[in-house]
Amino acid sequence: MRFINTVKIPKINWRALRHGQISFRMIANLFIISLLIIPSYFGIRIGFFDLTALRVIEILLYFSIFSSGRKRQEFISLLKHCKHIVWIALYAVIVIYTNLFHLSLNTIFYWFTNVFMVLFAVMYLLRYEYSPEQFLSLIYKCLLFVCLLSPLELVIGKSPFLYLNTLGKEVGSVQRFDAMRIKGPCWETNSYGLYLMIFFPFICYDVRQKKIDLCSQPLLLVLFIVNIFLTGARLAIGQLALSVFLILILSGKKEVKKALLFAGVFMPAVLLFLIIFRDGMAQGIWRTIFSAVDFIFNTDYSVRFGAQADILEDSAYYRELLFNNTILKNWPDPLLGRGGAFNFHLYIEGYDIKSIDNFYVAQYVTYAWPGLIAWIFMSVSYFTDSVKKAVKNINLAKLFAICWICYFIGLWYLDQLQTFPLMMIFFALEDSITAKSKRSTLFEKYDSSLAE
Predict the structure, then answer these.
(1) Which residue range is the domain that position 396 belongs to?
(2) How much is the pTM?
(3) Which terminus of the chain is more exposed, N or C, with fewer CB under 10 A?
(4) Mean per-residue pLDDT for 151-163?
(5) Contact 144, 219 (CB under 8 A)
(6) pLDDT tens profile 424-434
(7) Torsion of CA 227, 229, 230, 233, to 10 degrees
């Protein structure tokens, strides 16, 4: 954690704040904090529109940009030179016309305020405001806060972030196999699992040495692993295993030895805890681990720890039915989706399906083939760009590729669960890897690994 402590984030000038003087850096810091820490159920309701903390700070940020002639020109220039702008614009057009035809203004607002505006705001901040050290240090501090606070749910019986639920949204406690599952600042446990796995590859980046190091943030690494297991999300555990495997493959020999040494100390301690404390929580962790193993290898080890085999089988078969009876049958309409306000409901082979736990199916139902194809091309354009940079031995681009692979595999088993604002951070980060930053040589074209 040495890097986190040595890189300073500018402190709030309380005297200036009392006089109504808020610096652009202060707004930028609050914007990042609102993305990572403040839950989306914190805000006020205005008609059909939720004015969340993120949207309030986003308005302040964009007002600050467009009220300054220099910043406004910088922002416009950034849009002109964005390599992915065509796909972003195409998808935005599809979102607009679909949700105007099947009226859902709230969905339009969501995509613009929580996705597109977040993407361009973070791109601007990375290009003109933050140095890489400042940006990643702020990210790490936010993640440290979230990972320390979230497990308190096991003690107090509800997420501590729920004290900010001013919108009165239903965010209940969730259990699997009689074990409570934490959800952090998210709406549900699977969403928190996606949240953690979006950021996991990037806590394995040594900013100073510009190299991949699984143990570059040891405290965060331990907290991430603990939080992921406490979500009880089989998918997140599977993603974690895949991510660690890919990170080790791309690491140097020194970093691999360091990671193995860390595992040699950490894993026996965890196993000892699980063996000694045979309570509901420990059994729940065992069930979660083996449920993930069963999920990947099609085994049934978790049943020995109390998991219900019929529920696990139904979960897998339901997803197969969902895909076969929507995309493969061109249902409901291959050209014009049903929009964000559509209440999905299918009754197939005795299954009453009311939710879509597959992002690609959800995109097809909502925006039909045009929306699904536009989204895939937009996302793949970022991925291929990162692969090109990874081939040039840019380590941050390699981690972005890992993040992309794990996240988009996860979307086969879940909807995005309001995690796109977080993913936009790394779309912006990928876009800035070789860009000339006004603040510093952020993501240099070639990093230190090239010289090794």
Answers:
(1) 2-451
(2) 0.85
(3) C
(4) 90
(5) yes
(6) 998 998 888 75
(7) 110
SS3 state of residue 352: strand
pLDDT digits (tens, 9 = 90+) for 378-410: 999 999 999 999 898 889 899 999 999 999 999
The C-alpha R_g of the chain, in whole angstroms, comes to 22
In the 8-state DSSP scheme, what is residue 217? S
CA 247-245-405 angle, to 5 degrees, is 75
Contact indicator for 274, 284 with CB cutoff of 8 Å: no
Buried b (16+ CB within 10 A) or exposed e, 379-411: bebbbebbeebbeebbbbbbbbbbbbbbbbebb
Rounded-to-integer distance, Cα 33 and Cα 57, Å: 10
What element of type H or E holds 431? helix 420-431
Task: Classify strands 49-52 and 43-46 as parallel, antiparallel or unpaired.
Answer: antiparallel
**Are 322 and 361 contacting, i.e. CB atoms less than 8 angstroms apart?**
yes
How many Å apart are CA 264 and CA 269, to the nearest integer? 9
Number of domains in the chain: 1
Instruction: Give every CB contact of residue 24 below 8 A, 6+ residues apart in sequence.
Output: 64, 71, 129
